Structures are given as structure tokens and as C-alpha cells.
Amino acid sequence: MRLLCFPEIRSGRPGGSMLRVVLLIIMAHFAPLIAAQEMDRPRDLVNPFIGTGGHGHTFPGACVPNGLVQLSPDTRPDPVEWDGCGGYHYSDSLIYGFSHTHLSGTGVADLCDVLVMPMSGRWSPDPQEYRSRFSHDREAAHAGYYRVHLDDEDVDAELTATARVGMHRYTFPQGKDAFLVLDLEHRDVLLGSSIVQVSDTEVVGERRSSSWARDQRLYFCMRFNHPVKTKPGQGNLTDQIEATTRSQDHFSFGDLGGEPLVVKVGISAVSIEGARRNLEAEVPGWDFDEVRQQAEAAWNAKLDKIQVEGGTREQQRIFYTALYHSYVAPYIFNDVDGQYRGMDGQVHHADHDVYTVFSLWDTFRALHPLMTILEPEMTNDFIRTMLLHYQDGGRLPVWELWGNETDCMIGYHSVSVIADAYLKGLRDYDADLALEAMVASAMGEDPCLEAYRKQGYISSEDCAESVSKTLEYAYDDWCIAQMAREMGRDSLAEVFHRRSGNWRNLFDPETKFFRARRNGGFIDPFDPYEVNFHFTEANAWQYSLFAPQAIDELAACMGGTDSLEAQLDRLFTASIATTGRDQADITGLI
User: How far is CA 351 from CA 317, 370, 381, 390, in A?
Assistant: First the structure.
């Protein structure tokens, strides 16, 4: 921000009063401009509602960069609904509650753990009763903060978060008792749960569930700034403190007289004690606004790393919201004391931050290379985490979620993340162990990999998505070769360099496309616009240039650089209409 400087004015100087008047007029004139500049911090340009409509699958709630907690409203109680993957969809008009974990931008649903819902004057265990209507006119979201008015309950709900703690502030109407519903059955298949009412201001529990992550374990510690009074139809709370295996509970706080009910919830993948330690370490007090300001400062620290010039305010908003979404995941996964739950299901200790949600097919191309530039130390921790997965679970992650390998998507793209970091000089991890893990991933006992190693490509008889797998395996092999050569492992590098040329085996010189093979020959008829099971969420057009490790050779196969340039031009101008099976998340060919 540009500062406006004025000469010092002393009360005894002739004409001082007039100068003070002029100064005040000038300051009044420029104050709105200065305020506008102050509001143009990157955090203020973020719009968390971008992506919550259509097929975006994002959430609008509160989180901090790479935090384990994503405290957000849920408008879709059924995880089967594809556009409810993030728990919320902008087209909806009902909120079922506020849960503490969410996925952003994925194509499969999970999480939405530990749902909390305020009710005024009554309570109900039925989601169809405790849900509430809301309007976007009385809803707002910023980086680190969310608020909404629940119309049916006449309750103002506000949310903010730290890395491991979600903080709620609910303002109830005066003259009505305040209730809070806690629902552990929400969304995923429940494998087990417990709720323990420790005192009139603390509740702890656990939730074990199965969905995309087959065995997800979450523990929580919840505290209230007002004591729980009674449960409807029952006596004093002192007679009710108990441990239960129930998956739902409710709490009555009486008429709060307009004072807000503040709830803070620490979570952990390790234990209830871990959740309690996380809560006490990150939010020891009850100042909601202070926690909100800390969340906003955390976002400013990250988003300020990139300064943009030019463009419209709306274009800047789109840019900074995309950067904001880039910092949602991976999430920190260890407790404040360093404990974490490994891929083997056991509790371990690490002397560095451990992360979860490695959506590597989605992130190896752009997100992780960006993080090597913006977050080199975090990138080292990403790689240390991947190596823990190898040590605890026997392999590098493919699509890891909450300590579970989902085996979703294709490739072994952990290797490209590691090689990219290593070749950029980010090496604060055991490089020998990393190379060992990379080779182990490439030599796994997967039927697709076995076919790839045996014949130099995957045919349609061997595996679905055979073209995409062949091309991406070849790229990953090139990454292994580069790291091995940099480490002086020349013979190993040569093995994987040869494998990295396997893309040639699916290149058709006649059509200039990569094509699927069956019985040794290309499959006919061929339509580059067709979305089929030879490609991963794509068609031949979208994979037509995927040999990034061998651009010069690809150009030669196409007839020279002019031919490659012409193919690239055609890709940019090709019709966005696709044939074959429906693929809702394809919006064009680029």
C-alpha cells in the first residue's frame, strides 16, 4: 500500500489550524481508496463458493491451509449423490448440520465426520426434522470463516478453524431453549461409535466408518462455553454422565438470553486423548474472533506468496480462489505430539509433519510442482510421509485417504513428485530409501504392470484404460531414470530409461494418435472423440500429446515440429463435443 506523507504540523506554527483542516480534507478524500487497497489483500479476494455448484465438488466452510479440519455445512446427507462429494451444493436450500472433515474437488464422496446441528426450542434425532432451510442472501464465506442464518431455527451460525480444531458460534433467539444435536451416523457406513459425556462442558467420542476409505477412525473432544443443563424429560445432568455406544446424542443449554453458544471440537486419527491435546494446544480459550483472525492471517501468509498485477478484480478473484483451493489438501494428519495412524492401522510417531489425502493422479501434473516452488519444506514433509507409507504399508501411495489406500486412479505418480523435488534440490529425506520405494512401486505385482513389463505396453485384453496406463507408466519410469542417474545409479537409470520409451508402442503413425491395441493390432474403428474404457476419464484427443519426457521424439513421430505444432493447434480448436460414454467431468478437450 502506498503511504501518503505530510509535513509535521505543530500547534504553535502560524497557519497550523488551516493546515490541519486541509490535511483532514485530504485524508477524508483518500481514506476510501486506502481502505479499498487494504481490502484487496489476497485473502479478501477468495470466494469459497466458487466450485460449490455444477460438478465442482468443493465446500464453502472454514479451514486453514492444509488443516485437518474443514468445518463446513452439509446439504447432501446421501454420499451416493455425486455432486454432493464435498457435502454441500450451491443449488440446495436445506442444511443438515456442520461437519468437521471434507474433501475438495474429488469425484468420490467421503468424510463429513461429526455432524453438529443447533436447534431452538425443540430437538429431534431425525435428520428430516433437525435440518433447516437457509438462503444465500444470509450466507457468507471467506478464507477461514463461514456464517449462515438457519431460517427454521432462527439461529445465526458462524464457523472458523485451526489445523486440528473446529470452532462454532451459535446465536439463538432469546426466550427459547438452545439445543445441540450430535450425529455420528451422518453420511458414511458406521462401523462403530461411542459418545462419552465427561462433564457438563465436555463430550468425547469416536467414529469408525467405511466408505472410500475402508477403515476410517476419527476421535473427537468437544467442549462448550455454557454447561449442559438437562436432557428433555430427564433430571439433573449429574445423573446422566455416561459412556454410550450410541451414534447420536443431544444437549440442552436452556435459554441463553442472547449469549452465543461457543463449541470447539478437536479431532484426531489417533485417540480421544490426542483430540483433547490438539484442542488444548490450538484453542485454549474461547475467543472466537481471535481464532478467526488467526485463520485469516494464516491464509494471508500463504496467498501473499504470489502477487498478481493487471487483470480485472473478478479475474484476480478467480486466481486467488484457485490458489486457495490448492492449499486445502493434502491435510496435516499427525497430532500436536507427533503421533499419527499409519497405513498399517497402527499408531506411530514422527518428528515431522505427516499428511493425508494424496490425490496423486490429480495433483502430480501441477499442484505438487507448484508446492516445490511455494512450499519447499512442506514438499519435503510430503515425501517423508510417502516414505512412511512405504515403510508402514509396503508401497508408495497411489490415492491415499486418511491412512487408507483407495487404489483409485492410475499410475504410480508418487515417483514423479519425489523425482521432481529431488532434481530441484529438495532432499531433506532419505534419498536411497526413496529410490528403493520408487523402484518397488514400478515393479509391483499388479496385472497391468506385469503386462506392461512383459510386452512394453498394456493391451485392452490385459486391463481397462490400457492407453492411459501405458503412457503414464512410461512417464513415471522416466522420472525414476532421472533420479537414479542423478544419484549415480546408471545401470538402474538405463533400465527405466528404456521402459520410458514404451509410449511408442501405442503411437499410430497413420492417425498421429495413441491408440488401444488388441491381439497385437490397433482396435478399429477409431474415433479420437470417443470417451471409452481405453482411456482414463478422457479420449484420444486429450492424451494425444502425452509423452512429456520425449517431446522431440514425439515431434519426429508426427513428422516434425511443424506437424506437432499443427496437432496442438487442432487440439485447441477441436470440437468440445465427445462421443461414447458420458463423462460428466469432461468440459472440453484441453
Answer: 37, 25, 10, 17
For residues 346 and 9, what is the distance between their CA atoms, to the nearest angstrom?
A: 69
Cα 528 to its chain centre, rounded Å, is 32
For residue 291, CA distances in Å to 323, 541, 582 come to 22, 48, 45
Of residues 522, 529, 499, 513, the one with CA closest to residue 563:
513
| Calpha distance 34→197 (Å, rounded) | 51
Q: Are 266 and 284 in a shared domain?
A: yes
Q: Enter the C-alpha cell of residue 565.
A: 505444432
Q: What is the maximum span of the chain, computed from C-alpha positions, in angstroms? A: 99
Q: Name residue, grid cell 485392452.
A: 460
Question: How far is the C-alpha of 84 from the C-alpha of 102, rounded, in Å?
Answer: 11
How far apart are alpha carbons 174 and 120 in whole angstroms?
Answer: 10
In sequence order, the β-bridge partners of residue 522 are 517
Helix (H, G, I), strand (E, B) or coil at 472: helix
d(CA 578, CA 330): 32
Q: Can you say whether the dihedral through the CA atoms of 429, 431, 432, 434 is positive or negative?
A: positive
313 located within any domain: no
**pLDDT tens-digit profile of 558-581?**
999 999 999 999 998 888 888 887
Q: What is the percent of the chain where pLDDT is above 70? A: 89
Give the span between the Cα atoms of 278 and 265, in whole angstroms. 9
The C-alpha atoms of residue 511 and residue 494 are separated, in whole angstroms, by 31
Q: Quick one: 247 and 277 in the same domain? A: yes
- Tell me the helix, strand and coil percentages in the chain, rounded to 5: 35, 20, 45
pTM of the model as a whole:
0.90
Assigned domain for 316 exists: no
Q: Which domain holds residue 356?
A: 329-444
DSSP string for residues in 82-135: GGGTTS--TT--EE-EEES---SS-SS-----SEEEEEES---S-HHHH-EE--
Distances (CA, A) of 58 to 361, 529, 538: 18, 28, 22
pLDDT for 246 = 75
Look up residue 375 and give its amino acid: E
Burial class (CB in 10 A: 0-12, 13-18, 19+), 109: buried
What 3 state SS string does 486-517 have? HCCCHHHHHHHHHHCCHHHHHEECCCCEECCE
DSSP string, 510-568: TTTEE--EETTEE-SS--TTEE-TTSSSS-TTTTTT--GGGHHHHHHHHTSHHHHHHHH
Instruction: For residues 102 and 204, state if they share a domain.
Output: yes
Per residue in 442-470, pLDDT (tens digit) is 999 999 999 999 999 999 999 999 999 99
CATH code for the domain of 470: 1.20.1610.10
Instruction: Check: CB of residue 371 under 8 Å from CB of residue 363.
Output: no
pLDDT per residue as tens digits for the range 241-295: 444 557 999 999 999 999 999 999 999 999 999 999 999 999 999 999 999 999 9
Is 311 inside any structural domain?
no
Query: 505 lies in a domain?
Result: yes
Structurally, the chain folds into a number of domains equal to: 4
CB atoms closer than 10 angstroms to residue 519: 8
The residues, any chain, with a CB within 8 Å of residue 445's CB and separated by 6 or more, are none
